[in-house]
UniProtKB/TrEMBL annotation:
GO cellular component, one term: cytoplasm
One protein family per Pfam: Gln-synt_C
Organism (species): Methanolapillus ohkumae
Lineage summary: Archaea, Methanobacteriati, Methanobacteriota, Stenosarchaea group, Methanomicrobia
Keyword Ligase: yes
Protein name in UniProt: Glutamine synthetase
Enzyme kind, highest EC tier: ligase
Length: 462
């Protein structure tokens, strides 16, 4: 993979590889890349001035009656060689170029509706105070057979917008089966996914099968918050595209089947200052600093509202139930992996705090913005969490679990939205435009959900 350090190097690389068009990618509120293809001849202008762009294309939640510009981040520019079966000569050497963008107003000020811009602002503010975050995550997904199956006629695929890399601003359609994909197609898709990831300047630690049949997970190498969010959205797009190519459907739906485990996207955090991990203290209990405890307490204080973004669908709350391996009670522990926050055993520079509630459907830019901000507010307010759980809680009764916790996570999407609506700190982090968009979109989804007759009701009452 060629690394580019300057815009001049990018322009030279585009010329040498005969790149005719460059994909300009940007995040929508749902956490999918939308993209425009820009002629390579406009690339130099795009880096200096941006590309004029109608904000209404980003969806009704974005439309503010003002034009914005796509401003590419040169640090995200990559030239990705095409796989062998894609080398058809239709675009010079058949290599692809892509760059991730933010949205600005014409005067250069950040557009408030840009999820990446929100996270970048937070990261920059923390950096200016002398700190930085290292973040890691894993992304879970299911691979199902494409095509309608009468045996699954009681299952209605989710109608949330997702955007294929094959079509700049259109969403894929069609039905799929809940049967997991055949082995040959899955192996081809996995090979394609790994090829694309390795050629997209993305570092992963593993790509492995999950606990359930048809479930897979990709574990990312630690990086900055912004880079991890960029990589998650890129890999999501790679997975969808490769799966579709081989007749499969990739799903990030948090709980697609009642009897199977859901899909998670836990985030782990380390807070660094002068290369020293601020969450570590050799003389404190469990070798965790006061900052670590306050970071946990800050998340606990705001976690109900955070769920509206980290678990952003009606279906998300089918995963966060008492009977699931996913967290339900607000607890933390160094031993109990069912706790909302788990602190792995490594200490020193490797000390991490892992939040286990986020799921694979969330927008990582927005989720990380809220989680980091909540944790930092806990440090600033010198908050302290409840005592940690020192054993595996799944062997204990519900009343015992409740007594060890600071409450429970929201039971429904609308409950999480109500908590978000009343949390002025979280709303100030995202700004009015994004916050109102999240609330309005959630209200519409909830109204549609409660008015729909579900198969469980038919089976029980008909």
């Amino acid at each position: 993979m060629v690394q580019f350090n300057t815009i001049a190097e990018i322009l030279e690389g585009v010329s040498e590889n005969d790149i005719l068009f460059v994909k300009f990618q940007f995040s929508d509120l749902d956490g999918f890349f939308r993209e425009l293809e820009i002629p390579a001849s406009f690339l130099e202008t795009a880096f200096s001035k941006g590309i004029l762009f109608d904000s209404s294309i980003g969806g009704p939640s974005w439309s503010v009656g003002a034009d914005v510009v796509l401003k590419p981040d040169p640090r995200t520019f990559t030239i990705v060689p095409a796989s062998d079966d894609e080398t058809d000569g239709s675009r010079g050497s058949s290599s692809l170029a892509r760059v991730i963008c933010e949205l600005n107003y014409l005067d250069g000020q950040p557009f408030e509706g840009c999820p990446r811009g929100v996270l970048k602002k937070i990261v920059r503010k923390i950096f200016q105070s002398g700190y930085s975050f290292t973040v890691s995550t894993s992304l879970s997904f299911y691979l199902f057979e494409a095509g309608y199956n009468a045996a699954d006629s009681d299952f209605n695929p989710p109608s949330r917008s997702s955007f294929s890399s094959h079509s700049s601003l259109s969403s894929p359609s069609g039905s799929f089966s809940l049967r997991t994909g055949n082995a040959a197609a899955v192996e081809k898709a996995k090979k394609e996914i790994l090829f694309s990831i390795s050629n997209s300047d993305i570092d992963i630690l593993s790509f492995h099968k999950g606990h359930e049949n048809g479930q897979y997970a990709i574990v990312f190498k630690d990086g900055s918050a912004l880079r991890i969010a960029d990589n998650v959205l890129t890999v999501k797009q790679i997975i969808r595209t490769a799966s579709e190519k081989y007749g499969l459907h990739a799903s990030f739906m948090p709980k697609p089947m009642t009897s199977k485990e859901g899909l998670s996207m836990p985030f782990s955090f380390s807070l660094l200052k002068n290369e020293i991990n601020e969450f570590y203290h050799p003389d404190k209990e469990m070798m965790l600093s006061d900052s670590a405890r306050s970071f946990i307490a800050g998340i606990f204080k705001h976690v109900g509202g955070i769920c509206a973004v980290s678990n952003p669908t009606v279906n998300s709350y089918k995963r966060l139930v008492k009977q699931s391996e996913a967290p339900h009670y607000i607890t933390w522990s160094t031993t109990d992996r069912h706790s909302l926050i788990h602190v792995p055993s490594s200490r020193g520079r490797s000390t991490k705090i892992e939040l286990r509630s986020p799921d694979s459907s969330c927008n990582p830019y927005l989720a990380l913005s809220l989680i980091i901000s909540a944790g930092i507010s806990g440090i600033n307010e010198h908050l302290l969490p409840n005592q940690p759980v020192g054993f595996e809680t799944h062997d204990y009764s519900e009343s015992e679990k409740k007594s060890l916790s600071q409450g429970t996570l929201p039971g429904t999407f609308i409950e999480a939205i109500d908590k978000f609506r009343s949390d002025t700190i979280l709303k100030s982090v995202l700004g009015d435009l994004i916050s109102n968009g999240i609330i309005q979109k959630a209200a519409a989804e909830w109204d549609e959900y409660v008015g729909c007759v579900h198969q469980w009701e038919v089976n029980r009452y008909l």
